Amino acid sequence: MNKYNAYVMNIKIMIIFLLAVFMTSACVSTTQVVLLPNPDGKVGSLEVASVKGTDPQTLDKPWQATETSALTGAPGTPKVMDEKEVKAIFGQALAARPLPPVSYIMYFSQDSADLTAASKNLLLEALKAIALRSSTHVAVIGHTDSVGSVQYNDKLSARRARAVVDAMVARGVDSKIIEVTSHGKANPLIPTPDGVPEPRNRRVEINIR
Amino acid sequence: MKKLIMIVSMAVVLYAGLALAEETSIGFVKNVSGQAFIGRQQKLIPARANEKLLLSDALITGADGSIGVIMQDDSLLSLGPKSRVDLTQFSFSPAENKLSFIAKVKRGTMVYLTGLIAKLDRKSVRIETPNAVCGVRGTHLAIKVDNQDEDDSDISPAKSN
Question: Which of B133, B147, B150, B151 to mutate to test the interface with A (most CBs of A within 10 A)?
Answer without folding.
Answer: B133
